[in-house]
Specification:
The complex is a heterodimer of chains A (675) and B (120). Chain A is α+β, with helices and mostly antiparallel strands. Chain A is built from 20 helices and 21 strands. The chains are: A alpha+beta (675), B alpha/beta (120). Chain A binds chain B through residues 475, 478-483, 485-487, 489-491, 493-494, 568, 571, 636-637, 640-642, 644-645, 647, 670-675, and chain B through 16-25, 27, 39, 41, 62-67, 88-91, 94, 106-109.
């Protein structure tokens, strides 16, 4: 504890006494000055006894004063002893009060109990007390009735005081503390011995009073200090010696660390550090820094008695100016704040990660939208520096066609404080634009004022592409359906025109509808499974029960047929196959069918050349009423529909033993050909 | 009210690239007494017919012809003040804004509508 006192100032005390010294007045010698040599009239024997007795009083008082720290007790004893030594019944100590204008009856003997410790006297210039202080020596009044140098207080006269001696008490190197007064109710002829004794007595009293006053101040200071540090329960305060062993362990330290003063006194302060810090030499480093720089920060986890850890934010101060040196350590337990900080940081980190994880461009803007902060994904997508994005700079990344509308929508949101939802295209760092769905909401501060904005933009490019594609697909489907209805109607009308009976119509129409249906199946899968010529042919021939094999040589390279060509081509091939099944190579009446195709290059691009050849036919006995495809719907499809719809060139030659049909289909000319 | 009968004796240009459909449309028009000019499968063929036909009373134009649009044919007909209708399997909204005032019929062909489209 000694170490701590250096931090406090001594309070200035007894200034008024110092002032009294300076204003010392010229003393006029009284008519009965104590120095008159009447002592010799006293018998030598009595004198010796008195002096011995007084010597003993002085010695007893000194003993008593050494053993007591209580000023009042000492002054009371001083009064008792001096009264006894002087052979009077009354003595008292008057203390000059801080205002310098009054005297306080501090201690006394022979006085009414209500007076001592209570009575105050005005200290005027013409009082006996002021006179004595100015005189700086005992002032004897043998009889107050004859006193003309000063006035004697009324209460003393009432008590019947007749004679008194005022002995000023001076504090070493300071002013007067007050007065020792020895009173007698009888006229008393105090002599030079009395005066000398009282002077000696006051001379002893002064330093003793001084010591006790200082002690009193020190105790007050210590008490204040103790109250202060003991109240600071959140602050761990302790003192170590030069070897860093704990010497003083205050209640706050006990509260924070859990150990009692008895448990830690004499132990190295390193015990409070974590094993890791001890192993890393932290305590020594901290001590060295404190010795070198006066103090060292100590902000780290420390150990508690129960093994848990406490985060201390504090410092170590070197007490180099104090005897024995050592260190003062003061630290605050900020564990909760630290944990809260850590939790906050963890929470912020989680939020940041969430922000990076979310497949969205996120931003935070101030109320006016001038300052924005973006997440890593947004910065990565835009490829602009954070600085370029400020004050609306991000609008540079908006597609020129969307920029004005976007700028207006945001300006309106910032003006009105309303949430915003908008779709626009944003340029990525690769220069390409993606569609984004953007939402921005305002947030208010604790006072309900608009504090800023949170925004998120979701890349909906793929979604929009799919939507658009879906729209296209739906339109195509509608178109195909309507076309198909037209085709079906047309096929029905044509079939009706060439068949006589309803039964024949039904059979022929049914076959053609089935062929249409088959090609629709291919068309619906065409996106994933391109339609090949071989697939078209196999589908038709399989439908007739003819399997690809030796009788059905299909020869040709893989060729993809455009979906827009597939339907008309399939219907034409269906007619060829149906006729072969009814009348030709597939009828079972002999003959062979061969289908070959190849790719040819022409001036306008590639052509697919298909050669349908039936031979070994025996048409000599064929009924002339059966026209084969001549003039029939098949021939119409081949000779008119294929050229008209697909730009193909076709031939159809039917002889007595063979049928040859060629279809030359441009593959590269024109485009979709849809209507 | 305009009826199918108004087609009778009229020279109607038919522009349709799908022959199977065109065949039927032509048959329907002819049944109504119209004289079919065409059918033309391409813009070029249709423009050729427009140029060569002295007499044209109206036209039925498929919008998409093998990847082209029949708008040049519409322009040529407008020049000659020949009324026409567009015919399409798509939604009528696909017609370009320049031809927004032209009547549009959806496929399959409905003679009544076509007659009303052409002759009002």
């Amino acid at each position: 504890m000694m170490a701590l006192r250096a931090d406090f100032c001594w309070f200035p005390v007894h200034n008024t006494r110092r002032n009294l010294i300076r204003s010392r007045a010229v003393l006029s010698a009284g008519p009965r000055d104590a120095t008159k040599g009447e002592d010799l009239q006293m018998p030598q024997r009595d004198l010796l006894d008195t002096m011995l007795k007084r010597q003993k009083v002085l010695a007893d008082f000194a003993d008593f004063a050494l053993q007591s720290d209580d000023l009042d007790e000492v002054l009371q004893e001083a009064c008792r002893l001096v009264a006894a030594a002087m052979g009077t019944e009354r003595a008292k100590v008057l203390e000059i009060e801080d205002d310098g204008d009054s005297l306080f009856l501090r201690a006394g003997i022979g006085w009414a109990p209500g007076d001592v410790g209570h009575l105050r006297l005005s200290m005027q210039d013409h009082s006996s007390e002021s006179f004595a202080i100015r005189a700086r020596e005992p002032v004897i009044t043998r009889d107050i009735a004859q006193e003309d140098r000063f006035e004697v207080p009324d209460f003393m006269k009432k008590e019947g005081i007749v004679a008194l001696v005022n002995v000023p008490i001076f504090l070493p190197r300071q002013g007067a503390f007050g007065l020792l007064q020895v009173d007698d109710t009888r006229p008393r002829d105090f002599d030079g011995h009395d005066s000398a004794f009282l002077r000696t007595y006051a001379g002893i009293l002064g330093p003793i009073v001084d010591r006790l006053l200082r002690l009193r101040d020190l105790r007050a200071t210590e008490e204040r200090f103790r109250l202060t540090v003991e109240a600071a329960a959140d602050y761990a305060i302790f003192v170590t010696d030069a070897e860093d062993r704990i010497t003083d362990w205050l209640p706050g330290a006990a509260a924070v660390f859990g150990w009692t003063a008895e448990e830690v006194r004499g132990k190295p302060s390193a015990m409070l550090y974590t094993p890791e810090d001890r192993a890393a030499g932290v305590p020594d480093q901290e001590r060295d820094t404190a010795l070198r720089q006066g103090s060292a920060p100590d902000v780290r986890w420390h150990l508690r008695k129960d093994g848990s850890q406490v985060f201390i934010e504090g410092s170590r101060r070197a007490l180099g100016h104090m005897p024995g040196g050592g260190f003062l350590k003061i630290g605050q337990d900020v564990t909760e704040r630290r944990l809260a900080d850590e939790q906050l940081r963890a929470s912020e980190e989680r939020l940041r990660l969430l922000g990076e994880l979310a497949p969205a461009l996120l931003w935070q803007a101030d109320a006016t939208g001038d300052r924005i902060e973006l997440n890593g994904r947004a910065l990565g997508y835009l490829g602009q520096s954070p600085g370029e994005l400020q004050a609306g700079g991000w609008l540079d990344s908006v597609h020129p066609e969307d920029r004005e509308a976007t700028a207006q929508a945001f300006a309106e949101a910032f003006r009105s404080g309303q949430p915003l939802e908008l779709q626009y295209r944003l340029r990525g760092r690769d220069g390409g634009y993606h569609w984004f769905l953007c939402r921005q909401v305002p947030w208010q501060d604790a006072n309900g004022r608009l504090a800023g904005w949170f925004g998120a933009a979701l890349d909906i490019d793929e979604l929009r592409r799919l939507q658009m594609r879906q729209e296209v697909l739906v339109a195509e489907l509608q178109h195909r359906t309507r076309n198909l209805i037209g085709v079906v109607r047309s096929v029905a009308h044509q079939t009706m025109g060439e068949t006589g009976s309803i039964g024949a119509f039904r059979e022929a129409f049914d076959h053609r509808l089935k062929a249409l249906s088959r090609v629709q199946g291919l068309l619906s899968r065409a996106e994933h499974e391109p339609i090949t010529l071989r697939a078209l042919l196999s589908l038709e021939l399989d439908a007739l029960g003819a399997a690809e094999g030796q009788r059905l040589p299909l020869q040709g390279p893989p060729v993809c047929i455009r979906p827009s060509h597939a339907q008309t081509l399939a219907l034409a091939l269906h007619e060829l196959a149906t006729n072969a099944r009814k009348h030709g190579a597939l009828s079972g009446a002999g003959g062979r069918l061969g289908i070959r195709w190849e790719l040819r290059d022409g001036p306008a691009g590639r052509h697919l050349h298909i050669d349908w050849h039936e031979d070994g036919l025996n048409r000599a006995g064929a009924c002339p009423a059966e026209p084969r495809a001549d003039g029939g719907y098949g021939r119409v499809l081949i000779e008119q529909a294929l050229p008209h719809s697909l730009g193909a060139r076709t031939t159809y030659a039917l002889g007595l033993t063979e049928l040859r049909c060629t279809i030359d289909l441009p593959l590269d000319a024109g485009t979709s050909g849809r209507s | 009210m305009t009826t199918v009968a108004s087609l009778s004796g009229r020279h109607i240009l038919l522009v349709e690239d799908d022959f199977i459909i065109a065949l039927d449309q032509a048959a329907m028009l002819e049944e109504a007494g119209a004289r079919v000019v065409g059918p033309a499968p391409t813009v070029a063929a249709a423009l050729d017919l427009v140029a060569r036909s002295e007499h044209l009373d109206g036209a039925v134009l498929d919008v998409n012809l093998r990847g082209e649009t029949s708008y040049p044919v519409a322009d040529a007909l407008r020049t000659r003040s020949v009324p026409f209708v567009f015919l399409t399997g798509y939604d009528p909204s696909i017609i370009a804004a320049d031809y927004a005032d032209a009547p549009v019929c959806e496929k399959p062909l409905d003679l009544q509508r076509v007659a009303r489209g052409i002759f009002g």
